[in-house]
Structures are given as C-alpha cells and as structure tokens.
Amino acid sequence: MIGRLLGQLAPAAPAAPASGTAQPDELDVIVVTNGCTDDTAKVAASFGPPVRVLSIPVASKRDALRAGDEAAKGFPRIYVDADVELGAADIQALGAALSRPGALAGGPRRDLDLAGRPWLVRAYYAVWERLPEVRSGLFGRGVIGLSEAGYARVAGLPPLLADDLVASLAFQPAERVIVPGARVVVHTPRTFRDLLRRRVRATMGVNQVEAAEGAPASTARTRPRDLLDLVRAEPRLAPQVVVFLAVAVLARRGARREVKRREYSAWLRDESSRS
C-alpha cells in the first residue's frame, strides 16, 4: 500500500539535502509508521531520499501527525493517507495553490476507483460524490494541504476520529481551495460489508465532532433536501438514493452500537481498499 503511493512520489522528487531541510520546490516526504507490525517502514525506507521514515510505538494517527509535524521543516504541508494515490506533480500543484494569498487549506480533485466494485457500493458512491458538502469539502480525499496560517488554526483542535472533517470545517469556503491541477485516486471499499464499516466510522466521527467542545460546528450532514434536489436533477439516480439512505440508516445504528461498546476508540478500518 505505501509502496503504491511512494512509487509515484519518490521517483519524480529530487533528493532532499543532507541537512534534511527541503529547499523551495523540493519535496520532503516524511512517512510516519504508528505502531505498525508489517513491513511498512522497510518498504518506505527502500525508496531512499527524499523519503524519511519515522516510527512511533503508538497506533495513533494523532500522534503520527504530531511526529511528522515536529520533523517537517517548512510550509505548505501536505498530509497524505497511505491508501490513496497521487504524484509529485499533484503535490506541487497543491503547494503552489496554498502559496497564494487567502488560501489556507486545500485538497486535490477526487477520482473514485470503483472498478470491480459491486453495484451496491457503486450506487452509494454515485450519490455521495454528487453531494454539495462532499464536492466542496476537503474530507474524503485522503489529502489535505495547509499553509502556515492554516496550520496555526487547526493545530489546537481537539483530537477526533474525523480529523479530515474537522480540518475542512475549520475553514470558510473562501479560505479553502480544491485544486483542479491536482488529482488523487481514492480506493473505495471492495465489498458492501466494508462500505458499511467505513460509513459506521464516518458516522461516529460526525457525531463526535458535533458533541465535542471546541470543535467546529458540523455542517457536513446530508440533508433530505440535498437528496431531493439530486433526484429532481437526475431522476435515474432514484434507486441509488434508496441505497444511500439504507446505508445511512444502517451506519447510524452501527455507530450507536459501537459507541456503547467502545465509546470512540474503535477505528473500524476498511482493509479491502488498502490491498
């Protein structure tokens, strides 16, 4: 998985200088393994410069982000999940966009990999990717870029499951940008069961954001009006909207059950999209 990502980043990126400090227009790629028991660190290290590998013993994304920030030297910074695909040119396009005045946070154009997925999974995403909040928000891309001012705003936010949602909601629409010249491939779940696991986790995250003190006010929930507008605009999507609603109901039930059992400690990771 990490090799799939670094294979596109490392070959096109010039080597970082011996000091470890990236110069302007150079990529400094920091991979943080957080409690990994597989060969992620070994695979990442095999790429050599400009990849730097840090390992922490705790399986915590929050701690991994903090470790990466402590090692990073400059801005803008691009935070990338290991299970997506994007290239060095996409990173550079994001960096250029975040260097412009007023752009505090940004993300790439999202391409969903739905090849070989069952109809129920494809039906869900046919609706999801058309939703207004999904199209304009930074979440669900696996990539978020921050300028120095943007980083200062989110650095003190509370640790929450839906970290990408929180980062997106921390900025007004005029302060965040979706960069057309940058593209990320997001690998969707390969089974309906894995889709439900992912949506239960997402629902838990939204619930936690809305209940957390000091977190941004959540406005990313899908409204019935959004779905009605979608069906009016594209009547052929009515069956897919039914699937979307069914998944939403099941996810809310699952989220309540998981919170009762483990509060907000369950990660419920979708492994199928990582293979």
Structural commentary:
This protein has about 280 residues and is α/β, with parallel strands linked by helices. It has one domain (about 75-270). It has helices at about 1-10, 40-45, 60-70, 90-100, 120-130, 130-135, 150-155, 165-170, 190-210, 225-235, 240-260, and strands at about 30-35, 50-55, 75-80, 85, 105-115, 145, 175-185. A five-stranded mixed β-sheet has the order 3-6-5-7-4. A two-stranded parallel ribbon has the order 1-2. Helix 2 (about 40-45) links the parallel strand 1 (about 30-35) and strand 2 (about 50-55). Helix 9 (about 190-210) crosses helix 11. Residues about 10-25 have low confidence and may be disordered.
Summarize this, please?
The protein is α/β, with parallel strands linked by helices. It is 44% helix and 16% strand. The protein has one domain (75-269).
Total discrete domains = 1
**Share in helix:** 40-55%
Query: What sort of overall outline do the alpha carbons produce when their principal axes are compared?
Result: globular
Let me know the number of strands. Answer: 7
Number of helices: 11
How is the main sheet built?
Answer: 5 strands, mixed
What is the rounded distance between the termini? Answer: 6 Å
Instruction: Write out the strand line-up for the largest beta sheet, numbering strands in chain order.
Output: 3-6-5-7-4
Uncertain ranges: 12-24
Q: Nearest-angstrom radius of gyration?
A: 19 Å
Structural class, please?
Answer: alpha/beta
